[in-house]
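W.,

You were right to be curious about this one. When I first looked at the sequence I had no strong expectations either way, so I just let the prediction run and decided to look at it fresh. Below is the sequence, 261 residues in total, followed by the output.
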Amino acid sequence: MAVPLTPSRFGSSFSGPQQQYGGNTVSMADTLPSIDFGFNDLRERMSQFTARFDEFIERGRKRVLEERNAFRMNVAEVEESQRNRQRDISTLEDKSSAHAQTLSREAAETEEMRSAITSLTEQREDHMARRDALKEQIASVQSQIKQRREAQAAYQRSLDAQARHNIPELRFWEHCLGLKIEGTGVEDVLKFVYVCVDEEDPERECWFELSMGGKDYEVADTQPRLEREDVEEMQARMNDSRDLGGFLKGMRSLFSEAVKA
């Protein structure tokens, strides 16, 4: 604040000389111009500057606080984003691991399927080869069956022709010897039945079964029972000579002796 210089302020300093030189003498201080330094304006400007500076500081402090809060929020968001990214990375790693396991399992299954396909292909080729071989065997067997059927038919025709000649002979045997030939239900075994052996009971039947399936003929059973040695002797003669007529006559004689005994 400017303080004007007035005569009263300097009066005490020059009072002595004034009194010395007389009361009507004019002081030099009174002749000096008054100086205004503008302290009031300076104080006003300083006050305005202080207010503006305080306002600037307050705005700066608020801005710093806002920026700090914004920074903290940004840091929190970044940390949250980082955690989310970490979770996403962990999830993707789990998915990648599961995908790798799936690929490995599918690769193993694919290899297993390829192995199975190869095995099935080999089996198919083997079955086809066996099928072709079986077809050839079937064709061969069918040809053999055809030949055997033709041979069997020819043999049957021969048997039929022979049967026409055998019927009179069988009737002769039945009439002259009282002999019947019957089947037993067993393959290659015939039953020879005699009647008129027992004079007391002409209808009584005496029979024996002859097995003709082997190289030699064999008497399997007799009724009534005959001596085994006698039967074996007759059997041996017939196998040596192949004289069936003599064998039948001999067996009738054995039955006749057995009935009389």
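Here's what jumped out at me. Residues 1-22 have pLDDT under 50 and may be disordered. And, maybe more interesting for your project: The first helix runs from residue 7 to 10.

Coffee later to discuss?

I.
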